[in-house]
Amino acid sequence: MCYSFSASKDQEVCALCVAENTSCSQSPTGYTSFWNDCISSGLRGGILIELAMRGRISLEPPTMRKKRLLDRKVLLKSDSPTGDVLLDETLKHIKATEPTETVQTWIELLTGETWNPFKLQYQLRNVRERIAKNLVEKGILTTEKQNFLLFDMTTHPVTNTTEKQRLVKKLQDSVLERWVNDPQRMDRRTLALLVLAHSSDVLENVFSSLTDDKYDVAMNRAKDLVELDPEVEGTKHNATEMIWAVLAAFNKS
User: 0.85 exceeded by the pTM?
Assistant: First the structure.
């Protein structure tokens, strides 16, 4: 299960990408896996999408030389604080960066995947731990110490199962009962959730409670969605370019 940073219940744009510290990627015993390498980049992609949805950043307009989503730079639209530490920290980095960078480069920089020592300052550190702490304070997670072989590890079991069930059902319904077969007709935050869940490798967990028949339908529809051409979908009327740019970045990585 996931939550956007400080957004309301209906604004969980980063939902499934924080599954490492919530319930979508939990083991049957109720504890999360710490070995999903996709989560870190998924989180950073979710942060960029959330900032775009809040009107803080956008992609530069397409030109003859820069038509592709991954060629266009991320531009600052507003530096007004969002009230969320992680979003505002990212916003500060984007504002201070000259020349501007692309979506794919920003995901790499925010994750710390750069060989340039001068760019390491842009890495967002301890993101999962910071989100988990916030969710513990809200009573959604709790904190426990578990012994793994020769060392102790802090885990964050979910205590608020109602939120878990609500978010999982929202994703399941989006590809089953409420399936519209057109991303432009989907709620854009639901679309973002599906893209981020796919990019963070937690979709199977989200659909795991479904019957075999429904599971196959859900996975096939989600697969069809994320295999659409981001360049085509991003140019359509009312498309949220940042969602498709993030998907394009993950497809390339």
Answer: no
